[in-house]
Amino acid sequence: MNYNTTEINRQLRKSGFRVTPQRQLILDAVYKLGEHVTPEAVYDYVHRIAPTLSRATVYRVLHFLTEQRILAMVYMADGHLAYEMAGAEPHHHLVCRTCDSLFELPHSVLRSFRQTMDTQYDFEIDVSHLSFFGHCTDCRDSTGA
Amino acid sequence: MNYNTTEINRQLRKSGFRVTPQRQLILDAVYKLGEHVTPEAVYDYVHRIAPTLSRATVYRVLHFLTEQRILAMVYMADGHLAYEMAGAEPHHHLVCRTCDSLFELPHSVLRSFRQTMDTQYDFEIDVSHLSFFGHCTDCRDSTGA
DNA sequence: TTCCTTATTGCGAAAATTCCCAATAAGGCG
DNA sequence: CGCCTTATTGGGAATTTTCGCAATAAGGAA
Ligand SMILES: [Mn+2]
Ligand SMILES: [Mn+2]
Ligand SMILES: [Zn+2]
Ligand SMILES: [Zn+2]
Asked: B23 CA distance to ligand 2 centroid (A)?
């Protein structure tokens, strides 16, 4: 999979935003680094290539690209934010508060919930990457014992 | 509504934790300050009464009381964490990414979703206070126009 | 290609949050 | 009531994230 640079750039310009080398490099970093990429990992990556690119820009651009639905952000078990490409089929997380283990949830299980929000509240939930916290099979017993 | 101090203390001690004046004061602060209380607001409150109580302790105790299900934490529109008492009937949020407006969601709308997670994944989602981000009635049109 | 407008960046300071560790003090036990 | 174990705190440093603003440069128009 390779993201369509030309299409993304066109989209940004059409919305009045600018395509800067910083934005392109940061997006590329997230793409190359894979899933659940932290701002610090992005900074390390881009810093080698563009040593003057500042941390502030990394944070700003990650936030910006998320607003543009080009990236998806996700809360990890430690409460920190991570990012990844927002393409294709999203997936979600079940995060155990006790053992920190992480289970992936297919997008399909959210369909009916989204639909309910849509029809009953006229609210379109952004489902690019959700995290639900709770307790997994192994840990849910030990709590109530 | 008044929370049961005696019962909470007993519960904590039974689990091997200690009931400290700091923990009691911080819990009291959240209770008195109401919904969506930020760590800084808690610090300001307790600092007047106990000037040596440190910020680190505020963060630690808020986190701790959340683990103990005495408090509930919630992500606000600005991405920051807030806390509130975890008692009785929970409610949830629909937060618009465009206009930052916040709609309250009754607990009931999550029932079927929780049940699905429970039966299909044997995962007990903690529903003390969830936030769903997306786009509200007014803002969802302007996006696709 | 050059010019202009203004979106975006870099940098340093500020703010928010976490970490570390020696000092403190709960609370169980005798 | 004292003693001991060890959970918890205070305080400051470290880390993470945000802010403010002057300098820069994207890109539309001429
Ligand atoms: Mn994921
Ligand atoms: Mn709320
Ligand atoms: Zn678990
Ligand atoms: Zn809105």
From this structure: 22
